[in-house]
Structure formats: structure tokens, C-alpha cells
Design a protein that fits this description.
- The chain has 175 residues and is mostly beta strands.
- It has one domain.
- Helices cover 9% and strands 45% of the residues.
- It contains two helices and eleven strands; from the N terminus they run ββββββαβββββα.
- A hairpin with a 4-residue loop joins strand 5 and strand 6.
- The protein is globular, with a radius of gyration of 18 Å.
């Protein structure tokens, strides 16, 4: 039996397009009590009492979000794996402690890309750490710091988060 889908087409976009991510907000998955999706966008995020997302910033051109669709027609399966890679310069205790906490935590994420679009990760299940490094580098120009990869496994590509009027008020959920 055929799987009929309503297709709408995609028009070539003539707007400027910039790669990369610029900031990430992370929260314990258990601190998010509800997510509202309206017309395929996250329009509201409800937090448990006094819980907040925490902001993570990093040097330009060091963070990324990559979503990979895996489709197996023989088994009838399809899913999306999204890797959120964050690099933090300078190996120091406060960053080491935070990386260790992230490696053990179940989190959700709001990712702001370089085009100003926000994406929500962790809707189906929490993100989990899948890799990480701490490295001094070899030469003076090498990076000294930590990196962690948080992985989201979902039935769909990440949802866009509508921020501002009619959407999520980041000021109320980030602290």
C-alpha cells in the first residue's frame, strides 16, 4: 500500500544564509513540564517551578548542529539523529565540572543558529552525551579546551522555536 503524503514543494530561498550556531540553552529534561507545538513550531515551553534553561556560549565557528535522517525501507524504519557539538576554550575546573555534569545529564536544548533561527532538541526523548574530549593541543596556536557532543534521537527533524510575539518568551525561561 502506498504512503500518500501532501507535498507542498520548496521554493529557492534568495535570502542570505549563514552556517553555524551562536548560542545554546540547556535544561534538565525533568525541568520542562510541557512543550506546545502549533503548526509545526514550538510556541510555548512550560518549566517546573523556579527551573530555568542555562545559556552556553562559545567561540565563533566552534559549535554545530547536524541532523542525519536514517531510513531503512526494508525494515520500514526512519529516524533522525541530531548531534549538537559544543567546544569550550581553556581547560579549567568550572568547565570540567560542567562537562562532567552534561555527560551524565538528560537534557533538552534550544539552539540559536547563525541565521537567528531557534531549534528545539529533546522533544521525543532527552539528549544524551555521545562523545567528549579534553585536549591541551600541541602547538601554541592549537585549542586548549573541552568538547562535548549531545545527541538527540527523534522521529522528526528538530522543531523551530517561535520566539517573541505569539511564541516562547526566552526571558521567562532562561536564567
Amino acid at each position: 500500500m502506498a504512503c500518500n503524503q501532501t507535498l507542498s514543494g520548496i521554493v529557492r530561498d534568495c535570502q542570505p544564509n549563514i552556517g553555524g550556531i551562536v548560542e545554546v540553552y540547556l535544561a534538565n529534561a525533568s525541568d520542562v513540564s510541557g512543550v506546545t507545538i502549533t503548526e509545526n513550531k514550538v510556541t510555548a515551553i512550560t518549566m517546573a517551578a523556579s527551573a530555568k534553561f542555562k545559556k552556553y556560549t562559545f567561540n565563533r565557528n566552534t559549535g554545530s548542529m547536524t541532523s542525519t535522517y536514517t531510513i531503512d525501507p526494508a525494515n520500514g524504519t526512519r529516524f533522525v539523529t541530531t548531534d549538537l557539538v559544543l567546544q569550550f576554550s581553556r581547560m579549567e575546573t568550572t568547565k570540567r565540572v560542567e562537562i562532567v555534569a552534561l555527560a551524565a545529564a538528560d537534557v533538552v536544548a534550544i539552539v540559536k543558529d547563525a541565521n537567528g533561527v531557534f531549534h528545539y532538541l529533546g522533544h521525543d526523548e532527552p539528549l544524551a552525551a555521545s562523545a567528549g574530549t579534553g585536549e591541551t593541543g600541541t602547538a601554541r596556536a592549537d585549542r586548549n579546551g573541552y568538547a562535548i557532543t549531545l545527541q538527540d534521537n527523534s522521529a522528526e527533524l528538530p522543531y523551530e522555536v517561535l520566539v517573541g510575539t505569539g511564541g516562547v518568551d526566552l526571558d521567562t525561561i532562561v536564567g
